[in-house]
Amino acid sequence: MPAHASADDTALLDARALSKLHWRCRRGLLENDLFIDQFFRRYEHQITVLHAEGLGALMDLADNDLLDLLLCRKEPSGELDQPAVRTVLAMLRQPPLAAPSHD
Asked: Cβ of 99: how many Cβ atoms within 10 Å?
């Protein structure tokens, strides 16, 4: 566990908190929603309090500023440049999961 993380930070979100977080992450820009939906499909059962904090900070951004971060056009700076945000941003930037083959 990193020195800056506490046991509370690494606790998994319960179903209610996860549902509230998912609702809060709804965006007006489809491109952002695609990144966020992929994030929840991939990490839904692994999201911790620390991840929720980082995601919450990203959701405070305007849609275009968030998209710039997701597409690596910008990096977090100022108050946004914090470990929780960088961790979640790296998770959000993961390439899409392969579509299941229907062979």
From this structure: 6
